Amino acid sequence: MDKGKWAEKNDAEWRKILTLEQYQVLRGKGTEAPFSGKYVHTKDKGMYQCAACGAELFSSDTKFDSGTGWPSFTEPANREHIDLRADDSSGLTRVEVACKYCGSHLGHVFGDGPKERGGKRYCINSCALKLKKK
């Protein structure tokens, strides 16, 4: 993936590429309503990609039902494709998950995932993803 071409996009270009909901989440660091996203209950196999730039982010093999209302994963498909950033915007200390290629906000990572699978829960907005089915 070429990080440069995504980093150069301006606000108007992102608004043309993304739906309103995607823009609010990916570029505005918003959150979709729980249980509203199309991938919350999806069991299809494949690779979850960034909805903005197509970077491969999470394998369906690491997806699990956390009961939180958002797609949850135990680990990224490739740690080099995501950035983890401190986020205290809500008054809580959290860790934001962002796409390393285009800088889009994806969700947050928490330490309450399945212990037998590393203990992490990458809580990701459905609208930040697109599934490339196997």
Task: Explain briefly what this protein structure is.
This protein is of the alpha+beta class and 134 residues long. The chain has helices spanning 3-7, 11-17, 20-27; strands at residues 46-50, 56-59, 63-64, 72-73, 82-87, 94-99, 105-110, 121-124, 129-133. It is built from 3 helices and 9 strands; from the N terminus they run αααβββββββββ.
Describe this structure in words.
The chain is an alpha+beta fold and 134 residues long. The chain has one domain (3-133): Peptide methionine sulfoxide reductase (Metal Binding Protein, Guanine Nucleotide Exchange Factor, Chain A), CATH 2.170.150. It is built from three helices and nine strands, in the order αααβββββββββ. The protein has helices spanning 3-7, 11-17, 20-27, and strands at 46-50, 56-59, 63-64, 72-73, 82-87, 94-99, 105-110, 121-124, 129-133. The strands form two sheets. The protein has a six-stranded antiparallel beta sheet. It has a three-stranded antiparallel beta sheet with strand order 2-1-9, with no helix packed on it. Strand 6 and strand 7 form a beta hairpin.
Features:
134 residues, alpha+beta, 6-stranded antiparallel beta sheet, 3-stranded antiparallel beta sheet, Metal Binding Protein, Guanine Nucleotide Exchange Factor, Chain A, 3 helices
